[in-house]
Amino acid sequence: MNKTYNAFDTAREQFDKIAELLDLEQASKDLLREPLREFHFSIPVRMDDNKVKIFKGFRVQHNDALGPAKGGIRFHPQETIDTVRALAMWMTWKCSVVDIPLGGAKGGIICDPHNLSQREQEQLCRGWVRQMARNVGPLIDIPAPDVMTTGQHMLWMLDEYEVIYGGKYPGAITGKPVGIGGSLGRIEATGYGLIFTVREALREMEIRVEDTKASVQGFGNVAQHAIELYNKLGGKVILVSCWDQDSGKSRAYRKTDGIILKELQKITDNFGGINKEKAIELGYEVLPGEAWIEQDVEILIPAALENSITAENASSISDNVKLIAEGANGPTTIEADRIIKEKGIFLIPDFLANAGGVTCSYFEQVQSNTNYFWSKEEVLSKLDAKMTDAFISVSDLAKKQKIYTRDAAYILAVDRVARACSSRGWT
Fold it and tell me: Where are the beta strands (DSSP E) in 64-110?
């Protein structure tokens, strides 16, 4: 992670630009460019060696004018409060752009779960909830999984929340395992939602999916399910990259005639790390992780962490690239965005492209609160409809005003939130 890059500065710069285009009043600008509230706390955990270690935790609630705040909790050794602030702001726009009645939040713990036992991770989850129980819940702020957190982590958190309040509150947290309040289709939702928007973009550009190749940064849940649906539609992925825990850097794995998803999944750990030696045995070419952006493909899918496409590497994007679909949050810097725009590449911005996860989280919340669960086909059908409608709304606005798709998505999202704040009498 680039030490000089500040995701919150990027998020605010993006917002400031749109606030000017919308001619927002100063009060609206001041309210929306900062979080409504944020929490910093320490989490003591007795480790397996019987020593107590103190972990730093966060929760940022950016805005809840449209409904209860919503956002993931990530475990990451390089987590910062500014990253969490940025992600919370992006969640506000993400919920707004797909038109679901939720606001934006984000949480995190500075830790590396690779180096923690299951018991230690459970204590960390329960400790986070003990610190936040008064300020989260089904009517206030609904957490969910994010980077390096899973349904198991969410279930430990929900259990602690229910112990504290002495009841059953399945809608307090989403991303839970199926059968214990989780929704069918949730695992696939972000990756599938991404490809629903890719499908619509290609349709607009009059390009057949079968005639495209893609390079994907990342091989976690989002990337794997995006690849799965993209392959089903006829597309071919020639490269994936992932973080290599042993070397402490990212690596890329390429097969020019197309990677085989299932064989890579068999040699991938729970955090999306591919076994290098086994990949070589399967005939994969091993490249530096940065190689994902240089491939001669039609589609680039950054589906890892923020700050992945920069002014330094954007110039190496092939002239053949027609579409970039941002599966990750904030993968493109302001400077890189200008280069992409100049290149004439169609861009599906992050808070639209990866909104499938929060949309399905909303579906899970509705199901949990009503204690009535839908079939997988029904969930994915509703997801497809939501993502398609959102894409068309953004695309129509971009064409009508002759503006960049990222600007169109922001205008749509920010305007809805600003109007809600005004209607409530906040501004």
Answer: 69-76, 103-110
Q: Select from 311, 323, 170 the least CA-distant residue to 235.
A: 323
What are 400-405's contacts with CB under 8 Å, separation 24+?
Answer: 404/341, 404/347, 405/346, 405/347, 405/348, 405/349
pLDDT tens digit string along 233-288? Answer: 999 999 999 988 777 789 999 999 999 999 999 999 877 889 999 999 999 999 99
How many domains, in total, are found in the chain? 2
Q: Is 304 in a helix, a strand, or coil? A: coil
Looking at the structure, tell me whether residues 168 and 264 fall in a common domain.
no
- From residue 171, alpha-carbon distances to 158, 342, 398 in Å are 9, 44, 36
- Quick one: 213 and 113 in the same domain? no
The 10s digit of each residue's pLDDT in 331-377 is 998 899 999 999 999 999 999 999 999 999 999 999 999 999 999 99
Q: Among this protein's residues, is 94 annotated catalytic? A: no
Q: How far apart are CA 332 and CA 181, in angstroms?
A: 35
Residue stretches of the chain with pLDDT short of 50: 1-2
Say how many CA atoms lie within 13 Å of 89 toward its Cβ: 25
Together in a domain, 140 and 225: no
Residue of 94, 106, 236, 386 marked active site:
106
